[in-house]
């Protein structure tokens, strides 16, 4: 067994310790990680979907973001927005990144979100960018679950 296989098996084992009885979910998450893909997790409430993704992010020592989609969510709640700041007496717009800029992002109940919010998420997933204030910003280092 080579080093990559050993590391992957170790990752699966470690994540599996915090998510008992969900080996197929943990394996699917690692496959998604390797292929830089997106994973659709479906299941009944309480089946450790969020916990398994959070555990994966913890084991990888990387940032984790969770977006709970609701009917009143705005695209800027996902992508981030420009904030007005007064720096040394000079007005400036400063970009405050949204949760989409975490390394691993859990998008929960996407179907509940308005169309514009879904479009912002799909732009990030498909193109690896978000558009804020007419500017495109790269978010290609993110994984979505």
Automatic annotation (TrEMBL):
<protein>
    <submittedName>
        <fullName>MoxR-like ATPase in aerotolerance operon</fullName>
    </submittedName>
</protein>
<dbReference type="GO" id="GO:0016887">
    <property type="term" value="F:ATP hydrolysis activity"/>
</dbReference>
<dbReference type="Pfam" id="PF07726">
    <property type="entry name" value="AAA_3"/>
</dbReference>
<dbReference type="InterPro" id="IPR050764">
    <property type="entry name" value="CbbQ/NirQ/NorQ/GpvN"/>
</dbReference>
<dbReference type="InterPro" id="IPR011703">
    <property type="entry name" value="ATPase_AAA-3"/>
</dbReference>
<feature type="domain" description="ATPase AAA-3">
    <location>
        <begin position="38"/>
        <end position="140"/>
    </location>
</feature>
<dbReference type="InterPro" id="IPR027417">
    <property type="entry name" value="P-loop_NTPase"/>
</dbReference>
<dbReference type="GO" id="GO:0005524">
    <property type="term" value="F:ATP binding"/>
</dbReference>
């Amino acid at each position: 067994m080579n080093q990559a296989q050993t590391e992957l098996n170790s990752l699966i084992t470690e994540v599996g310790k915090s998510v008992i009885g969900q080996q197929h979910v943990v394996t699917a998450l690692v496959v998604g990680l390797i292929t830089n893909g997106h994973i659709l997790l479906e299941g009944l409430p309480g089946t450790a979907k969020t916990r398994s993704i959070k555990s994966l992010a913890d084991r990888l020592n990387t940032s984790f973001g969770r977006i709970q989609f609701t009917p009143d969510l705005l695209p800027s709640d996902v992508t981030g927005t420009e904030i007005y700041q007064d720096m040394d007496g000079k007005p400036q717009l400063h970009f405050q990144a949204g949760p989409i800029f975490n390394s691993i992002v859990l998008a929960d109940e996407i179907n509940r979100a308005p169309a514009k919010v879904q479009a912002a998420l799909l732009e990030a997933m498909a193109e690896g960018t978000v558009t804020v204030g007419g500017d495109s910003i790269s978010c290609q280092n993110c994984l979505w679950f």
